Amino acid sequence: MSECLVLGELSDLRLESKRDDPGVVARPPDRGEALSKGQQMFCPNCSREFPTIKAITLHLNSQSTCWPHEECLHQFPVPPGLRGSQSSKPSTTTGYCHPHSGYVFGVGKNLFDRLQDDQYNYRREINMYYPFHDEGEWELAKFLVENLTQAQIDKFLKLKWFHTRPKPSFTSKKQLLDWTDALPSFVPWKVSNLEFTGYKTTYPVQLILRNALEVVKQLFSDPVFANHITFQPHVVNTGSQREYGDYMSANMAWKIQDYLPVGATQVPIILGSNKTPVTRITGGLEMHPLFITIGNIDSEVHSKATLRAWCCIAYMPVISKNVSPVTMATQDNFGDGILYPPHTGKHTLQLIHGIAKEIDPWDLDKFQKAAKAAHLSGVHMPYWLDWLFSCPSVFLTGEVLHTLHKFFADHPLKWIKEIVGKPELDTRFIIQHKQVGTHHFTKGIMHVNQMTGCAAPPRFVRAIRALIDFIYYAQNPVHSPESLQSMVQALSDFHAFKDAIIEAKARRGKKGAKEDFFIPKLELLQSFRGTIERLGTLMQFSANMTECLLITHCKDLFARTSRRVNDFMEQCIRILNRQESMELFNLYALITSHGASLINAISLEDEEVTTVNPALSWVSRILPDEAYSVHGPQRVLPVAHRYSHQIRTR
C-alpha cells in the first residue's frame, strides 16, 4: 500500500430488527439495489450523483472515468498464503481474490500524514523534535519517561552533575511530562463513573475507555503495516488442496464480502481481554483491560507484542459455567464426542425475550436471577443484537493457550501422573536425548538403569496419544482439508479409547475416582474444524498475546503509579498515552528528519528469511544506516513458509 487508501464504504450491517421479536432479522440490501428515497450517493471525485453504489463503481471503472489514469493503479501487498508463489522456484500454489473487494475510491492521509496536522507542526518545520531542543535531548527525555518514576526523574534533574554542565531544557519532572503530553496523539481516553441502584461499592466503579472506531482507523492507516496487510478475501490452493491461513483466506470473509457493496473492504475486528491482579500478596487490586487489533494485519505481525498491532481501548470495572458458549451442549453432554448444534444468537435472543415478557429487564436484581437460571449473563440488549453475521457461536473462537495447553495441564497430565506415577514420568523426561529446540531435563539421569515402557495399558496410551496429536494438529499455522480431517480423526480416536482412562481410575476428583468426562474445554474441541474453515487458523486468536499485553499494560504500568486505590487507573492511562505518543513520534521524527517519504512503498521481494518487524523492514529499506534505532523482533524464518510443506504431507 503506497499510501493510506480511502476504500469503498462498508455497507451498514446494523440491521433494524424488530425489538419485540428477537428472532426477526432483516434482509441486507443488494449491491445494485437503489437507495431509499431521500438518500444520495455521490462520486468521491467529481461529486456527480448516482442512484446506487454499483453505478458509482461502474462510472469510476469506465473508459470515460473522471478519475485521473495515473492515480487508478495502486499496488497491493501479496496475501500471506500467496507470497511463496511469487518466487522464481516452481510452485503448485495458486489463488484468486474476491472480484468485488478492495476497490480504491480515493487517496487519503495515512497516520503519519495526520501527524502534520498537529497544532505545533509549524514549529517542527524548524525543529523536528519540538518541544525538545534536538534529537539528543529527545532521546534523553524518552529514556527518563520510559524507565524512571516521577520521583526518580526529579532526583536525576537535581544531580550535582548539572551544576557544572548544561542542563536539559526541561528543569522538572512536571515540565518534562507536560512536554511529552504535548506530543501528537489521536484517540483520547474517557472516564465514566457508573452507579447502580441497589448495588453499593467500596470504591467508585469506573469504566475507562476510548473510541474503538477511531483506534481501528488508526491501525488501518498506519503506514508501518503497509507490507503486512490484506484487503481482499482470497482462496489459496496448493495442488488440489485448499489452504486456510489468516481470516481473509477462510470462508466467512468471502461470505460477508458477497453482502457488501461492490468495492467495499472488510475490516475484521479481533478483541482480547482478561483480568489480572496487579498487587503482590496484599491489596487485592485487579485490572481488566480490553485490547483490539484488525484481522487485515498479518497474524505473524499481530502475534508480537512489541509491534504496536494491538491497542488498549478500555479498562473495565472488575466486580459457574455449566453450558457451552458455542453449542447447545450442557454439562451432561460434555465429553461424549458428539458435535451439537451451534448455540446461535437467535436462540439466545429468544431466551432473553421470554424472560423479558415476565420480568422488567431494568429490574436488575430479579432479571439477573432469572437470566442466571437460564444460563445467560443477564445482559438483555447484547451489542450484537442487530449485527448481521455476529453470532456468538461464530465469533467466540477456539483459543490455543487455554482451550488446549491449560486443558492438557489440568486434565490429561493429571491422568498420566495417576497411571504412570510422578517419579516414572519425571524419569522419562530425564532420559530423552538432547534435541535442538526441545527442553532437556538433566537432573537425576545417572540414577536411571532401564525403562520397561509398559507402565500404562495400551488403550490408555492410545487415548492420550490421540489427544496430543489433536493438540498439535490444531496449532498448524496453515490448514488443508487433509490436515483438518486428521485433526478430527485424532479427536475421534480419543473418544474411542477414553474409557481406558476411566477403567484405570486415572480421572479423579476431591472425592476419588470419577466416572464422567464433564469437562467444558473438552466439548469446545468439537467446534475447532468449523472455526478454522470459517475464520482461519486458531493461532491468530491465541491468548498468548493477551497474556503478554497484561504485563505491559497492567502490571508494569501499575508499578509506575503512586498505587493509590482511588486513582491508579487514571494514572495508568496517562502513562499509556505517553508511551503510545512517544513510540509514534519517535519513528515519525526519524523518517522526517532524514527527508524520507512518509509513504511506505510496497515491497514485492520474497526472501526465505524475512523481517517480521514491519517498522524495522521499512527503515531498513529507506534508511539502512538508522536500522539500529528500531527496537523489537529482528529477522526470523516466516512460520507459514517453514512448516506448510510438512503440514500438507504429514
How would you describe the overall organization of this protein?
This protein is of the alpha+beta class and 650 residues long. Among the domains are: 31-70, no CATH class; 111-185 and 557-645, no CATH class; 412-518, no CATH class. Helices cover 37% and strands 10% of the residues. The chain contains 24 helices and 17 strands. Strands 6, 7, 10, 11, 12 and 13 form a six-stranded antiparallel beta sheet that branches. A three-stranded antiparallel beta sheet has the order 4-8-9, with no helix packed on it. It has a two-stranded antiparallel sheet with strand order 1-5. Helix 14 crosses helix 15 (422-430), helix 16 runs antiparallel to helix 17 and helix 21 (544-559) packs across helix 22 (568-593). It is globular and about 80 Å long. It starts with a strand and ends with a helix.
- Tell me the structural class: alpha+beta
Output mean pLDDT. Answer: 77
Shape call = globular
Count of strand segments: 17
The N- and C-terminal alpha carbons lie at a distance of 36 Å
Q: Gyration radius, to the nearest Å? A: 28 Å
Helical content band: 25-40%
Task: Report the biggest beta sheet as strand number plus sense, adding barrel if it closes.
Answer: 6 strands, antiparallel
Summed up, the helix count is: 24
The percent range for strand residues is 5-15%
Detail the poorly predicted runs. Answer: 1-38, 320-324, 444-453, 635-650
